[in-house]
């Protein structure tokens, strides 16, 4: 059944042919994907300090230390965006596969959990088409088309372990790969002129690592009443220099020519994540997170970009925990959550930084005590119309299927 | 069961979302931010931009054996000769009579169908017919071969009559008898055909329909034969092979590119396109040549088109004949799309220039006088316009 669902998801995605963001994503590595799991999306996309027995945190591997089941998580998203310029607006939507994660406990006593997955790390997605008319009869009218597609993806393999004082430590070995394709094309409206198409393609690949820590429940240390599950978490996401092949091709009719080929490195700055979470009155989970990445240090082929700045994200989330996880009543087992975030994105144009404000909502619908369907909705506003920049309104709907099964566990007789 | 139902609903949900991922058509929103990938459409006009060009005329004698037209006559500095050999299809009785030398030729009257005039239609025209004594082959015989052609100095032609469409002549019975003998036994007599040579008083060149197995209007000779005391019969002499040659030269004026069929003059044209660097996409290229209508000379029924070819080797201006770029006549211009040619040069192939030929280079004597790269009026020089795209 799981296999069939996966095939269906991939098949459905292959029809998607639109855009999910704006021309801002032409710069750097595009829009950053902070979190894979739909639960974390609903809590403001981070959840660095969450210790989660149902989901696989892709932001802090230390959170895997309390795995008690084998987990498989598939996710996909629907991204709709209204892009406003000062005199026009444009709607586009795209459905994307968000990836697959897999994890299982090796030793619940030692907090050794293992996880692996394939998830997107960033996404480039834009289209633009301008009409030009030319009085010269040999040129006449033509369309100038820009299109960006692709992004960076990550394959990770990692593990967690309990360390002294009941802290958890986790680490992943990451392999990054991607394909950034930037198309510039001209299509003439007459029948005689051949079209022009230039493709700049970056193909980065290389290794990285994520190391995270998670505190034990600090409630006793602080001693607040009504507060439980007080955790602090932090993670560092390090990238080696990604070896990047760059090729520029020109295509016209049947003629394909490689104009230039380079091979050098892409430098992605280290990302730091911090989080705090606690449960109030046994039912109300609060999360507070902060993530930063100095994108002014981002380089492709040793060149920084004037259109990139240091970015950070502050988010907070609230989750209403179920009254009774084993209740026979469906709605009593449902988890509800909301989140807010402010993000200073990596983009900067004409000295104006592009900021993003997001509101999140989400729900976990139990299929049975171990398996969930998570749904989250994000509404975000980004940008400005000053200096001919763009204002964007996003709606992102994430859906993930979470399967928890008792595989690979050895029981004593 | 519940799980299955739930999964089914989920999959349905996913597929629904995929299907509703419809979007507006792309607009110009955001284009201002994409200057980093900007590409520009540009136009080169060789008459406005400082592009070096050069041109000249090149005489390149070619065999005219495949031409559907035979040329004969004299006009200005051009003299057109025609070589024809005839053959017969003979019944056995006639063959026996020829072998026994008992067949007489009473009359041999030829007719040539006119399909072209170069010069005034009513201008004087006459020609002689000489027996050819040396070997020739229509596939390879050219104006350059003509000087070495050996032929008798006896005019074998008689009683020539010209109508609007047919030219009649009578030819010596003796030579026709020799052809008949040769048809039966090559050792009895030779048949190397005849040379039709214009007389000095001629002031026009006439085009006749040449040999064509599918055409009944090519040159024929009706031969009346008699076997004394037995019968009189008419035999038909068909063209076995034919070819024309045109002898002459043009005064070359550097202000013009002379392009002439049959003689044969071709135009050479070259533009310095070294500015089209690697990565430039050629969207369209158009060549325009300006004709001097007063200096040009045309016959009747001519093909008013020129053809341009890529010169693939600088040695003897070698071209790929199958890659033709037609230049169509529009007013006093010849205009053609040569995008493929310019794209060939920008695809790392050497630019040896362009060869321009008459649209039908083996038919007629059309002389196209094209204003050259050194023509005093700049705007009337050969014009190359290129629409191209360049990435910033």
Key phrases:
heterodimer, A: 413 residues, mainly beta, Porin, 14-stranded antiparallel barrel, 3 helices, 19 strands, 5% helix, elongated, B: 392 residues, nine-stranded antiparallel sheet, 5 helices, 13% helix, 42% strand
Question: Quick gist of this model?
Answer:
Chain A is mainly beta. In chain A, 5% of the residues lie in helices and 60% in strands. In chain A, a hairpin with a 2-residue loop joins strand 16 (335-349) and strand 17.
Walk me through what this model shows:
The complex is a heterodimer of chains A (413) and B (392). With 413 residues, chain A is mainly beta. Chain A is built from three helices and 19 strands. Chain A has helices at 2-13, 38-42, 219-222; strands at 31-32, 70-84, 89-107, 112-120, 122-133, 141-163, 167-188, 196-214, 227-239, 242-252, 255-267, 271-280, 284-294, 299-300, 310-320, 335-349, 352-366, 372-383, 391-405. The longest helix of chain A is centred in the N-terminal third of the chain and has 12 residues, at 2-13. Chain B is mainly beta and 392 residues long. The relative contact order of chain B is 0.21. In chain B, the strands form three sheets. A nine-stranded antiparallel sheet of chain B has the order 1-21-15-18-17-16-19-14-2. In chain B, strands 3-4-12-11-5-10 form a six-stranded antiparallel barrel. In chain B, strands 13-20 form a two-stranded antiparallel ribbon. In chain B, a hairpin with a 2-residue loop joins strand 17 (318-330) and strand 18 (333-337). Chain B has five helices and 21 strands.
